[in-house]
Design a protein that fits this description.
Blueprint: H1 14-47, E1 59-65, H2 69-79, E2 89-95, H3 101-109, E3 114-118, H4 124-129, E4 138-141, H5 149-166, E5 172-176, E6 198-201, H6 202-215, H7 219-227, H8 240-249
Catalytic activity: K(+)(in) = K(+)(out)
Membrane topology: Multi-pass membrane protein
Keywords: Cell membrane, Ion channel, Ion transport, Membrane, Potassium, Potassium channel, Potassium transport, Transmembrane, Transmembrane helix, Transport, Voltage-gated channel
């Protein structure tokens, strides 16, 4: 009525016409007040929705589970380190909640290699959006500060089941808190250690390092420095032992397959 008039049916009395005038004004005011919320909903949905459109021939991995600024920053700092030979791999994060401002800023700093999608790893539709079936691997991160480790492991194991049900041949690497929960992964039919599926038990690593450090003091520090990607520059202002230690922390350990000639 506000654009084309009353049409075939219209008011004859002054009271009816006055009522329609106020009705239109109130309706337009309510609609105008809802416009910002509608724009915000549409913008948020399109911002982290859609489907992954990776470049042809470019590989990608999917990361899910406990997605926070701390866990993502530590992961990207090691995975995208300049010392790695193959860093042309896109990292796709899938989480049911949108990132906060701090995490969003981190994604923007790595916008060429990192992409975030809002969704659930338990939904086949969201797994299709991030192209899990085409990914090189899928990583499930655990919350190492959780109050209930068994509940955290159970949630992550359910994520693995969802991923394997969608694509049984994808490589899955999962973090678990408790050692005894590793046995539940063997009940997944498509879980295969030979195809690269692996589990990292945080408690097992921590207690193992503590035990080995009792036999060889400094073992945990040496292994942590070897398996972590770090780059430090020596300085003439530092003492000699500090420069030597920083030089040692820059060393890494790599795996390489030798040719049959070495057999």
């Amino acid at each position: 009525m506000s654009t084309v008039g009353y049409g075939d049916v219209y008011c004859h009395t002054v009271f009816g016409r006055t009522f329609l005038v106020f009705f239109l004004l109130v309706g337009l005011a309510i609609f105008a007040s809802c416009i910002p919320e509608i724009i915000d909903l549409v913008g948020t949905r399109s911002k982290y929705g859609g489907t992954l459109k990776n470049e042809r021939g470019r590989r990608h991995i999917v990361v899910c589970g406990h997605i926070t600024y701390e866990s993502v920053s530590h992961f990207l700092k090691d995975f995208l380190h300049e010392d790695r030979e193959d860093v042309d791999v896109e990292v796709v994060f899938l989480h049911r909640k949108p990132p906060d401002l701090e995490l969003e800023g981190l994604f923007k700093r790595h916008f060429t290699t990192v992409e975030f999608f809002q969704g659930s790893i338990m939904s086949p539709i969201d797994l299709q959006r991030v192209k899990v079936h085409e990914a090189d691997a899928c990583l499930v991160l655990a919350n190492k500060y959780c109050q209930d480790p068994d509940a955290e492991d159970a949630a992550n194991i359910m994520r693995v089941i969802s991923i394997k049900n969608y694509s049984d041949d994808i490589r899955v690497i999962i973090q678990l808190m408790q050692y005894h929960n590793k046995a539940y992964l063997l009940n997944i039919p498509s879980w295969d250690w030979k195809r690269g599926d692996d589990v990292i038990c945080l408690a097992e690593l921590k207690l193992g390092f503590i035990a080995q450090s009792c036999l060889a003091p400094g073992f945990s520090t040496m292994m942590a420095n070897l398996f972590a990607m770090r780059s430090y520059k020596t300085s003439p202002d530092m003492q000699a032992w500090q420069n030597d230690y920083l030089c040692g922390t820059g060393c890494e350990m790599y795996t390489e397959t030798l040719s049959p000639s070495f057999v």
